[in-house]
Amino acid sequence: MRKFPVFQKSVVVAVWLISLVFVQAAVGGPASSPERSPQRLAAAAKSPALPRELGIATHSVGTIYYTHATAVAKVLTDFGQVKVLAKPMVGPNAWMPTFSRGEIELGVLSAPDGSWAFHGVKEAGYPQRSTKIRLIQRGVPIWNGMIVRQDSPIKSIADLKGKRVSSGYGGNFIITKITEGILATAGLTPADTIPVPVASFVGGQEAFREGRVDSIFAGTPATAATIETAAAVGARYLPLPKTQEAVERCRRVVPGCEFTVMKAGYGILKEDTLLMGYYTYVVGHAEALSEAAAYQIARTLWERYKELWPIHVTLKEWQPETMIDSNPGVPYHPGAMRFYKEAGVWPRDLDQKQERLLRESGK
Fold this sequence. Notes:
Order of helices and strands: HHEHEHEHEEHEHEHEHEEHHH
CATH architecture of the largest domain: 3-Layer(aba) Sandwich
Shape: globular
CATH topology of the largest domain: D-Maltodextrin-Binding Protein, domain 2
CATH class of the largest domain: Alpha Beta
Largest sheet: 8 strands, mixed
Strand content: 15-25%
Low-confidence stretches: 1-35
Number of domains: 2
Number of strands: 10
């Protein structure tokens, strides 16, 4: 048998390695670009395989949205055959551009935020339409309100006139809209108060503890940051006016909001208190999230929703009866829609609404 000199063997190996690199580059292997081009996103959307890891965008640490997103991530990781990691940012106004590019596959946000983002409502902090946002499942209602110090002479929303009220909130524009809506219940506008700019939800809590504001948006009474603030300086929620006129005024600012009496013992509430609220959405990117992945996520949350309940008290309202929004502000992801139809729970009249929303998205 003929033997090759060592030098010749080295040349053969080198040529073979160079050829392998070119082949990998040609088929999109390690040498290919990592950027998510439209072609790659379209291919991902049609892929029947489940991804190994997904990101879910959410609000800042300490907010109820962050708690819900991490809970969803845990249940999907434990039971959904895919690892999901929470990606906290200031709010959906901050993470929507990244989501729209397909760099984050999932998100948790309010239903109003989802609709505002989809339609590109500039006044709500969405200057560009996010036409790739798709609904996977409706979550739970978030009951919100404003707090004051426990010993404050302020007893009602109307009493906030001329008082220092938190404003701004950077990339979490819905807080500004909720504050405006709550003030509207008493016939007030932000101009009737002394606005105190804060950078975020947590920044508002800090300003409240430091005595720089008289009242802040505090989210739900069971929010971790609000519980900490109440423990540190004492706080109570201001009840909303109990009139239909107050509800209508609030809805003109925050579409679709509801009012409900939350019982004493819920979070920091020491007495029954009328609060306002709206549902949350779990959303996915129309292309970066494959149909197979969206189907699996919808199915896992549908079948394993009780796994969410021990994580936080607010998640006990995650129920099959309210998981499907029959009048959504954004189109459903085709994977989620397929699951609900197979499960026999897809409302018949939702097809027309889905088609209309898809036409609005340009699809």
